[in-house]
Design the sequence.
């Protein structure tokens, strides 16, 4: 098991290295010139050239990347071109908000998705099952900005249960988490339903019934741990999907996370911030997948012996 | 232990001692399935009694309704489609079909317990053995989980599982099939039920393990006086275990009698057919062969064939262990010969087949029809692929459900570019008739055929390219005995008419004796004994061959049930550390081609 994690760790570092190379090269090829953004429209060619030299952007690609990488291994993500602040400071100030939002979203999507899936599986073929699946289909297909605005309109504007935007208290967290989580809960409810139906057909569920166990114990102690196994692996992938989602959700709700930071940086071609956010996101995805593996390992003894 | 039961439902569940008369009385039981075209009956008005301490075997082929009957007794029919539509099931005074789910739960596992066919899938893979046992006890008795664990340990000891304390903390995947079935039995008997239903309890097990489990069931039943309903298709198991037998066919009652009378004097034509179709193990003599193999032409020669599979582990995924699937196997198959490989699961018999068609890499030398297919000097060519064809175990899984069967049989001809479409279709028609199907069935789909017919289609497909050798890997194992007998007959006809050779791979000793010219007995990747049928079955010399033969249940209830020495433990693992070599057995010819391994080289 230790060797399994060591191997995964080495793999993860290689993945991050790959991500850094690809992102760096893509940004280098970007037709927009970051120096023009910094210097402003009225700058003389001489000023532009000076800034370019100052930032080292006149160097060949591999030299620039090597400099970036050597900073990176020492924990230095570079300085923002425009805000004149360390990228790591900027990200550190924004990251907790985004992590909180993601945690809320994971909680919301698992709570909604899994319970819908379980109920639908147990009531398979009935009207309950069909209506739940229609709801989940809407959840999967509705664009996030539409869901966000809809939730805002109903629960914040009309009912006034939650604040319209901002950050700070638990009630600020509810609507953004729901918005971010609804897409996933649609997927989870469908996966959970089919997985549960599959597991309920298994021989060991029949054995459990033959033992005279109660229905609740059969569902929660025998069927659920088995049915949830394929879904655990999805949670890791989910974090990647969230990374795309938070850019939208954070701007709809004015949530001060790295999604907003990234959005602003992209508009201004602030390459160090874009690099930093991409790497932090990639790290989050890698850690998410590692955690998913760890959970699978805890639930499923068959993987443990391998 | 006493028979006192304390549970919430104690008032309704009568204590064992209060019973008089049959412990179970099934009267006019009908079971139907709800389909789009209305109720379709599956079991018709079945009636039987079960008495305390007796073993009733319900025998029949697939679709006879025997398993449904047992599920109906447990109240476990798959809802909502399948249900009891008539009759009654009396457990003592209780009418089970009238009970609600809550009441039934008090009886399941407690007074009527059940063992299922598939030990590999019948235990929850993510739950410890100890927990699975204890929860069954806790469900019915008001005792603490700790006390239940003590009882669970007792139950494991009573099924003679090795190292019972350790097993409590293991997960199902850490146990072999035979061990898992013992756990299932432990779970079923832990509460000393009045009735134990065993649904094909040994069908999925190897023959030596089957022997152990049957012995165990018999002993436990004697100790506890439990009534046993044994559901099986295997008349050998019936003969060894049952006091009375009930034969079913297509959901109908056929006949019921005590076991000796039924075997000696079957009253119904179907029962006689069933008994006749059972291949019984003899001494290898007296089996007529229409075709004499051609000694001078070898269609397959294997010389010191070795197949290893690597097991990787560690940070760098280095090879640390190897599975020694096939070790140093040499054999040859003559033209027109049926050569059988027999052995228990994991002995490497199927791996040999795969290496002969180039599906796994091997070292050593394999020649097919004189053509070397082994690297580095030889290679697999399309000609060789035409010369060897395979027929697999599960005919449904090996036929593409979306293709018409005619196309399935024609496909090899298309792939190898034999003839034009009209010639190919003519050939397909001929093949269908050759395997006992009719020409006008070619337009149908696989699901429209029965299991036996599907296997005939697979055989027709294998014959399409006019091969020299057909490898039949457990090809009749999934078929009912009456169907099996007919398919075996077809194989023999093909040998005598077409001169094709067969490599017949099977775990079933009786079938092997029935069909083979020569037999190789495999154990842990090596052949330990090889010879013709008379030699192997008439005078087996190697201890493993003897063990295999003596483990086969005999379909003859009048024969003394011999109490052979209890076999304990499982076959050792073929996985070894990378630097460890396997001692090769040495085969000595003791006359007329009867080869046996010296026992001291056998570890």
Sequence:
């Amino acid at each position: 098991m230790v060797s399994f994690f060591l191997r995964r760790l080495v793999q993860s570092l290689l993945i991050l290295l790959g991500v850094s190379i690809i992102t760096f090269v893509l940004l280098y090829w970007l037709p927009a010139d970051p120096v023009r953004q910094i210097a402003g429209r009225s700058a003389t060619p001489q000023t532009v050239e000076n800034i370019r030299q100052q930032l080292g952007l006149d160097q060949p690609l591999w030299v620039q990347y090597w400099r970036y990488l050597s900073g990176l291994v020492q924990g230095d993500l570079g300085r923002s071109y425009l805000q004149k602040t360390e990228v790591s400071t900027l990200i550190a100030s924004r990251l907790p908000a985004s992590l909180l939002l993601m945690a809320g979203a994971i909680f919301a999507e698992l709570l909604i998705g899994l319970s819908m899936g379980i109920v639908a599986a147990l009531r398979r073929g009935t009207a309950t099952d069909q209506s739940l699946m229609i709801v989940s289909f809407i959840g999967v297909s509705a664009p996030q900005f539409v869901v966000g605005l809809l939730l805002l309109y109903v629960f914040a504007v009309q009912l006034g249960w939650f604040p319209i935007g901002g950050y700070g208290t638990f009630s600020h967290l509810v609507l953004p988490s729901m918005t971010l989580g609804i897409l996933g809960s649609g997927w989870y409810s469908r996966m959970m339903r089919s997985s549960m139906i599959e597991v309920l057909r298994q021989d060991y569920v029949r054995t459990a019934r033959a033992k005279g166990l109660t229905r609740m114990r059969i569902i929660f102690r025998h069927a659920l741990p088995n049915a949830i196994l394929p879904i655990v692996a999805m949670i890791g992938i989910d974090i990647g999907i969230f990374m795309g989602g938070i850019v939208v959700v954070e701007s709809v709700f004015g949530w001060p996370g790295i999604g907003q930071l990234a959005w602003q940086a992209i508009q201004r071609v602030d390459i160090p911030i874009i690099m930093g956010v991409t790497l932090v996101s990639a790290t989050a995805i890698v850690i998410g997948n590692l955690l998913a593996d760890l959970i699978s390992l805890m639930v499923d003894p068959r993987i443990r012996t391998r | 232990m006493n028979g006192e039961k304390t549970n919430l439902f104690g008032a309704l569940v009568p204590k064992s001692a209060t019973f008089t008369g049959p412990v179970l009385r099934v009267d006019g039981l009908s079971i139907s399935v709800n389909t789009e075209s209305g109720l379709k009956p599956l079991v018709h008005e079945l009636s039987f009694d079960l008495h305390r301490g007796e073993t009733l075997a319900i025998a029949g082929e697939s679709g006879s309704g025997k398993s449904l009957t047992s599920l109906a007794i447990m109240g476990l029919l798959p809802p909502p489609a399948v249900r009891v539509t008539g009759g009654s099931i009396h457990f003592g005074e209780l009418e089970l079909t009238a009970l609600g789910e809550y009441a039934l739960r008090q009886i399941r596992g407690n007074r009527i317990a059940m063992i299922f066919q598939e030990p590999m899938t019948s235990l929850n893979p993510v739950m410890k053995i100890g927990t699975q046992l204890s929860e069954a006890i806790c469900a019915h008795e008001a005792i603490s989980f700790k006390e239940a664990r003590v009882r669970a340990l007792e139950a494991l000891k009573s099924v003679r599982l090795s190292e019972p304390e350790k097993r409590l903390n293991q997960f199902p995947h850490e146990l072999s099939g035979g061990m898992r079935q013992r756990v299932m039995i432990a779970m079923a008997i832990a509460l000393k039920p009045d009735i134990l239903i065993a649904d094909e309890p040994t069908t999925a097990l190897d023959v030596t393990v089957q022997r152990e489990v049957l012995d165990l069931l018999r002993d436990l039943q004697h100790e506890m006086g439990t009534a046993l309903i044994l559901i099986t298709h295997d008349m050998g198991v019936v003969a060894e275990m049952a006091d009375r037998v009930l034969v079913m066919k297509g959901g109908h009652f056929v006949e019921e009698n005590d076991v000796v009378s039924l075997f000696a004097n079957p009253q119904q034509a179907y029962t006689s057919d069933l008994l006749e179709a059972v291949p019984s193990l003899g001494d290898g003599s007296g089996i007529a062969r229409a075709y004499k193999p051609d000694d001078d032409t070898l269609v397959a020669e294997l010389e010191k064939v070795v197949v290893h599979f690597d097991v990787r582990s560690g940070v760098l995924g280095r090879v640390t262990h190897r599975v020694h699937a096939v070790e140093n196997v040499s054999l040859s198959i003559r033209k027109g010969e049926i050569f059988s490989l027999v052995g228990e699961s994991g002995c490497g018999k199927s791996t040999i087949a795969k290496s002969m068609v180039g599906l796994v890499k091997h070292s050593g030398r394999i020649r097919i029809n004189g053509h070397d297919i082994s690297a580095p000097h030889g290679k697999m060519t399309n000609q060789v692929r035409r010369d060897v064809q395979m027929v697999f175990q599960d005919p449904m899984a090996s036929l593409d459900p979306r293709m018409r069967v005619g196309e399935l049989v024609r496909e090899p001809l298309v792939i190898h570019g034999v003839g034009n479409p009209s010639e190919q279709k003519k050939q397909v028609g001929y093949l269908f008739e050759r395997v006992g199907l009719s020409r006008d069935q070619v337009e149908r789909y696989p699901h429209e055929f029965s299991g036996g017919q599907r296997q005939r289609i697979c055989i027709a497909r294998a014959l399409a390219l006019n091969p020299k050798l057909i490898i039949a890997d457990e090809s009749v194992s999934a078929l009912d005995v009456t169907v099996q007998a007919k398919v075996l007959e077809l194989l023999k006809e093909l040998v005598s008419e077409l001169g094709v050779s067969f490599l017949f791979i099977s775990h079933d000793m009786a079938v092997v004796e029935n069909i083979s010219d020569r037999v190789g007995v495999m154990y842990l990747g090596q052949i330990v004994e090889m010879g013709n049928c008379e030699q192997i079955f008439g005078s087996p010399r190697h201890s493993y061959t003897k063990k295999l033969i003596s483990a086969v249940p005999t379909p003859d209830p009048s024969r003394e049930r011999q109490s052979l020495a209890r076999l304990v433990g499982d076959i050792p693992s073929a996985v070894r550390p990378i630097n460890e070599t396997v001692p090769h057995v040495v085969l000595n010819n003791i006359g007329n081609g009867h080869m046996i391994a010296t026992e001291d080289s056998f570890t």
The mean pLDDT of chain A is 87. The two ends of chain A are 8 Å apart (CA to CA). The CA atoms of residues 104 and 177 of chain A lie 5 Å apart. Residues 87-122 of chain A form the longest helix (36 residues).
